[in-house]
């Protein structure tokens, strides 16, 4: 007696899963396709179930080396349920196989924003970083499409926190880095912070100091452990004659790295502008102990010394 064919969406999905586990990827893809058609014909408004079927079929395509259809199905799955881990990872793998490395990098980093413990995403983002640096050099980040900012509600690391702690980064980044200081940055946070810092650096090169401050502030929300980000933001404040902000950022930079020469120099410049010549002289003196032949610092010391006398 012939086996009874699956009669429901759930039965088709379950049978498809079994075929996939048995290595019968084409058969599994056919079953998932039937389940999708049945679901759509029923007019069911169950985006999660539909998204899973697209994602499962994408896994079959990926196993069979059909990366184009894998990407299409993953994109369909993500349109139904944004920031789902499995379709993001499968699409990243397909992009990587097609040598679309910038797109693969974006998907891997997006996964890390959601859950920084995903080993394949950590390895994939590192692999893509090396590949992109080899291909495009130091400015490789300029070749990237925009990296989506994952809403807090989709980030796994916030699941154990009480509701009142679920705050969007955009609400706190303009007010400093208080939120970042209350938690240890994840690997995904550090990678996102690094990308934002590079964006800030590019804006500085173009003279867009106000926009650069926004990028550095956003970077510091994700990770406030890099001294250079503070001293870079201080440079922007210095260009905008916001001297008190320069002092604050340089002080924070020096708390993280007592040998940050740029932070000493920029704070000395700010103190000079604020007519706090003794503090300026002290910073220059500290700088010259680290780099005795620093020409700009020697010149600034002469100017400050004349003001003191």
TrEMBL record:
One of its GO terms (biological process) is protein targeting to mitochondrion. GO terms for molecular function: heat shock protein binding. InterPro entries: CiliaryAsmbly_MitoImport, TPR-like_helical_dom_sf, TPR_rpt. Plays a role in the import of cytosolically synthesized preproteins into mitochondria. Binds the mature portion of precursor proteins. Interacts with cellular components, and possesses weak ATPase activity. May be a chaperone-like protein that helps to keep newly synthesized precursors in an unfolded import compatible state. It comes from Bos mutus. It is found in: Cytoplasm; Mitochondrion outer membrane. It is a peripheral membrane protein. Gene3D superfamilies: Tetratricopeptide repeat domain (1.25.40.10). This is Mitochondrial import receptor subunit TOM34. Interacts with HSP90A, VCP, ATP6V1D, KIAA0665, AMPK, and DMAP1 through its TPR repeat. Belongs to the Tom34 family. It comes from the Eukaryota. Residues 163-191 are annotated as: Disordered. Pfam families: TPR_1. Keywords: Chaperone, Cytoplasm, Isopeptide bond, Membrane, Mitochondrion, Mitochondrion outer membrane, Phosphoprotein, Repeat, TPR repeat, Ubl conjugation. Its main location: cytoplasm. GO terms for cellular component: cytosol; mitochondrial outer membrane.
């Amino acid at each position: 007696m012939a086996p009874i064919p699956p009669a429901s969406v759930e039965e088709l999905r379950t049978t498809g899963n079994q075929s996939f586990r048995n290595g019968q990827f084409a058969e599994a893809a056919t079953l998932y396709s039937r389940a999708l058609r049945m679901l759509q014909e029923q007019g069911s408004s169950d985006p999660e179930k539909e998204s899973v079927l697209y994602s499962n079929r994408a896994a079959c395509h990926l196993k069979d080396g059909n990366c184009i259809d894998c990407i299409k199905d993953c994109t369909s799955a993500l349109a139904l349920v944004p920031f789902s881990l499995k379709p993001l990872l499968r699409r990243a793998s397909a992009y990587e196989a097609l040598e679309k490395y910038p797109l693969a990098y974006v998907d891997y980093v997006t996964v890390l924003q959601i859950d920084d413990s995903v080993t394949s995403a950590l390895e994939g983002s590192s692999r893509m970083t090396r590949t992109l640096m080899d291909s495009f050099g130091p400015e490789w980040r300029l070749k990237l499409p925009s990296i989506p900012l994952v809403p807090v509600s989709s980030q796994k690391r916030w699941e154990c926190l009480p509701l009142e702690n679920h705050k969007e980064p955009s609400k706190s980044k303009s007010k400093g880095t208080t939120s970042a200081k209350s938690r240890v940055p994840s690997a995904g946070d550090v990678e996102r912070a690094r990308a934002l810092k590079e964006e800030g650096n590019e804006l500085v090169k173009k003279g867009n100091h106000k926009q650069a401050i926004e990028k550095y502030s956003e970077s510091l929300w994700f990770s406030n452990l890099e001294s250079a980000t503070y001293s870079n933001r201080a440079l922007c404040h210095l260009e905008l004659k916001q001297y008190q902000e320069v002092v604050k950022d340089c002080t924070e930079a020096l708390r993280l790295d007592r040998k940050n020469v740029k932070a000493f120099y920029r704070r000395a410049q700010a103190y000079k502008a604020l007519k706090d010549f003794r503090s300026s002289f002290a910073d220059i003196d500290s700088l010259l102990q680290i780099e005795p032949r620093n020409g700009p610092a020697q010149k600034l010391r002469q100017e400050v010394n004349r003001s003191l006398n």
